Every structure is written in C-alpha cells, then in structure tokens.
C-alpha cells in the first residue's frame, strides 16, 4: 500500500508540477491543494493524464474552516473538496481548493470535467454559500426556495432564523421569526456509586 501511495504521489507531482500548493499524505490518503486559478486545469489533468486517470468524481463538498482547530486556523475560510477515484489504477485522491474571498467565496465549476459534480456543487452552494462559476444551474437543492442564509456556515444560528408552520386561518404555510430561545445545553452525567463495578456486589 505504501508503495502504491508513493507512486501516486510521484505521478501527482510530475503531472501537476507548480500547480500544487501542498501535497500531504495521512492515514493512507493523499490530499492535493491547488489555487483557485489552477483548479480547473489541475482537475482536467487529474482526469485526462494516463498516469493518474481519475475518471470518477465520488464526492464534492464545501468546508467552512472558520472555527477549525479551535481557532488556530489562519488560512482562507471556505474550501471545496473533491474525492476522486481512478478505476484503472485503483487509487484515490482528495483535491482541495480554497476560495480567495471569504466574504464572497467563488471557485470554478467542475461540471465540464465530471458532470456528476452538478448536484454536489449545488449542495455546497446551498449549505455553505460557495459560488461555482460556470455552473449550468446553480440554485438551492436542499433548503426551501425562500430560505435565507447558508445553514452549514459556522456563524449560522443553530435554531435558524425563521420557522414555518401551517396557519389554519390563512389555510396555508407561513414563515415567521424563530420562537425558540437560543441556548447551549451541556449534558450532565450522573452515575451510580457502583457504576462499572459489576463483579463487586
């Protein structure tokens, strides 16, 4: 396994060259980070280069690093992370790109390389607010059409901002401000004196 990962790492370095910002290996996996400007070109190389052959996009998701490592993170806030599979070589790689602007995160779409990125990118847009430039139909996919905000962002309130209910007088669904008081619950653990002493009775 280690030899195969080393070969993949070597092939990635040879094919991507200076496009690689970082290439890390941990827990039997390799993560390649590229800049937003090189994102599509790097993805195209990963797909087309016969030394790599990543023909399948397994997953793509957004990530909000704003509270990563309990505040020790000092890099860009939003990233798009793709999990790629090469059936030909039987290996995987993680491709990560950070959006340059934390206030208006934009990266290019990968739908021209892997059409299956379509709904994954819509999900990352819906939940994190990452804009995928060039996407053929970038609109919400999980939240309601009138939803405000992006619920997977670390600064989004846990209880949300609006709630919906059926109003019998109006005979329709209505939206209203959240009526739940925001609170943080810390669980209290209560154990009996003999907890864990099953053999000592």
Ordered list of secondary-structure elements with their pairings:
Blueprint: H1 2-16, E1 20-26, E2 29-34, H2 39-48, E3 56-64, E4 78-86, E5 91-98, E6 106-108, H3 117-128, E7 131-133, E8 162-167, E9 172-177
Parallel strand pairs: 2-5, 6-7
Antiparallel strand pairs: 1-2, 3-4, 4-5, 8-9
Overall average pLDDT: 90
Oligomer: single chain
Instruction: Give the amount of beta strand, in percent.
Output: 25-35%
Structural class: alpha/beta
Record field, number of beta strands: 9
Continuous helix count: 3
Structure report:
The chain has helices spanning about 1-15, 40-50, 115-130, and strands spanning about 20-25, 30-35, 55-65, 80-85, 90-100, 105-110, 130-135, 160-165, 170-175. The radius of gyration is 22 Å and the shape is globular. The chain has about 200 residues and is of the alpha/beta class. The chain has a single domain, classed as NADH:ubiquinone oxidoreductase Nqo5 subunit (Beta Polymerase, domain 2, 2-Layer Sandwich). The mean pLDDT is about 90. A hairpin with a 4-residue loop joins β4 (about 80-85) and β5. A five-stranded mixed β-sheet has the order 1-2-5-4-3. Strands 6-7 form a two-stranded parallel ribbon. A two-stranded antiparallel sheet has the order 8-9.
